Amino acid sequence: MPQSPVVTRFAPSPTGYLHIGGARTALFNWLFARGRGGKFLLRIEDTDRARSTPEATQAILEGLTWLGLDWDGEPVSQFARADRHAEVARQMMEAGTAYPCYTTPAEIEAWRAANPNQPFVSPWRDSDPSTRPDAPFAIRLRAPREGVTVIHDAVQGDVTFRNDQLDDMVLLRSDGTPTYMHAVVVDDHDMGVTHIIRGDDHLTNAARQAQVYAANGWDLPVFAHIPLIHGTDGKKLSKRHGAVGLHEYAALGYPAAAMRNYLARLGWSHGDDELFDDAQAMEWFDLGGIGKAPARLDFKKLEHVSGHHIAAMSDEALLAELAAFLKATDQPALSPVQLQRLTPALGVLKQKARTLPQLLDQARFALIDRPVAADDKARAALDPVSVGILKDLTAATQHVNWTRDDLEAAAQRMAESHGVGLGKIAAPLRAALAGRTTTPSVFDMMLALGRDETLARLADATA
Ligand code: GLU
């Protein structure tokens, strides 16, 4: 038997920004599908009209795009499929796997008061069809009353639900709108979803959803309910632990490539591998590697992963990440001149930065224009003696080859002729070129800035 191709989906409710937990769920589904030549679909669960907003949908799409998770086809709107959900509910009623229920909210309330802690049993479940009134009705699933529903979960193992504890859930309300739980099953079936990877807060839903699959004779997808992400203290993640929205991580300057690596490790493991790229993650990712215990956010680890990815990235990829960071933080894009000065320095800069703002801070010398504004320390470094040395150095470097070796040799000669150490030259040079005293090496800066800009900055500082 040929194996059916893998189809996964991410099904966010558009009621706010993309939560870090949602981003991880999306990532797991994406990795699972992409690693198997399958499809990764996106469904916007916008049935709750009061809470769903187009802005939230937009934020979710932007978050996924920033994270680098591409989906197949157009995003599906669950709300737009309401007619199909109603159609299936009516077909089920005709087939007898569902039935019309005429109870009013007041009657249900009275029933509950008389039967505390019991799942509601509708009096219409086994009623004679000829007694049905001409009145609006909801369509309820005729769920099995006896036995158990077992979910063979790829993460949680076998999870058993007693059928007498599950009520006959409403599929279609009396106003003709589908319930969320019914819509999910119809959509997943119609979209051909083979694997449902989602938060374990949906585990009990899986039992009810499995009953709808069974009632329709549809193949059940593989369920994998993943534990939620916890904060550093092991408690459920909340704002007090720090960033919870994916956009916040983007604004903190973690590259998307690093976030993919870090989030993949949050609740999933492949031996002791901590640092990997997308190709490895796709090859390795499987449901068996997902842990049963909630993973904890660890910002130190994230920084470490981030630093590794920044250092390992090609210049081109790094510039793309920088552009995304600037956009995420509403900062102007780098100008052609800035890019021209920054690019030659990237090789050096990326070895030291753990986040993109750290990199931009070290890159400041390449991003600023003349005249360079000096901070207090830089001004102090430009004392009259140092300015004298810089003037000589300016003259001496007018005609040297603009290479590291020749620049180093020129600086060395200058230090010797003034009877000072190289450090005495480096401090005012940093001040003149960058306006501050902590910078990349002076030769790296000179090479990145080029002869004309370097000499112009030296001239400014010694004027
Ligand atoms: N819309 C649900 C949520 O955002 C997900 C439902 C599902 O994955 O089945 O939590």
TrEMBL record:
Localization in the cell: Cytoplasm
Keyword Cytoplasm among record annotations: yes
Annotated source species: Paracoccus salipaludis
Single GO term (MF): tRNA binding
E.C. code: 6.1.1.17
Record domain Glutamyl/glutaminyl-tRNA synthetase class Ib catalytic: where: 6-303
Subunit structure: Monomer.
Encoding gene, per UniProt annotation: gltX
Protein name as it appears in the record: Glutamate--tRNA ligase
Record CDD domains: GluRS_core (cd00808)
Motif position, 'KMSKS' region: 236-240
Enzyme's top EC category: ligase
